[in-house]
Design brief:
The chain is an alpha+beta fold. The protein has a single domain, classed as Sandwich (Immunoglobulin-like). Helix content is about 20%, strand content about 40%. It contains two helices and eight strands, in the order H-E-E-E-E-E-E-H-E-E. The chain has a four-stranded antiparallel sheet with strand order 1-2-3-6, with no helix packed on it. The chain is globular and about 40 Å long.
Length: about 140
């Protein structure tokens, strides 16, 4: 085996060793009343730390919030919509009545495409703001 062939073999082996399993894409949403459509004056804040595994289409999240006008009545991923636009519920976030809340869901191909394209937002609803009190666009 020539030195060149051996180097190519070593490089190929190293590349295959580091390929390993796919890693989840890290995404985030920062929620506030100004991002609502229409905006509101809520002092509440929230964050969603989001992992998305393109191989399995598994979406996982940890949603934390504080300062809402009252208990959260619901929380969802909405889409497809860019910032400044509203859309229907795409993925429910169950058990969001207390913070933090964690969960996961498996997306369809269309949902996955919208998520990756930045067309999803997280919305937390309250009795005083049934259309949503705080909202944040999901970004990479």
């Amino acid at each position: 085996m020539s030195n060149k062939t051996m180097l190519v073999s070593l490089a190929l082996g190293a590349a295959m060793a580091f390929a390993g399993p796919a890693f989840a894409d890290k995404m985030k949403a920062t929620l506030d009343g100004k991002a609502q459509v229409p905006p509101n004056t809520s002092a509440a804040k929230g964050t969603a730390d989001i992992d998305y595994d393109p191989a399995s289409k598994k979406l996982s999240w940890k949603l934390s919030y504080s300062g809402l006008s009252g208990p959260a009545t619901a929380a969802h991923f909405h889409g497809p919509a860019e910032a400044g636009k509203n859309a229907g519920v795409a993925v429910a976030i169950p058990n969001a009545t207390s913070s933090p809340v964690e969960g996961s869901a498996t997306l369809t191909d269309a949902q996955a495409a919208d998520l990756v394209a930045g067309r999803y937002y997280v919305n937390i609803h309250t009795a005083a703001n049934p259309g949503g009190e705080i909202r944040g666009q999901v970004t990479k």
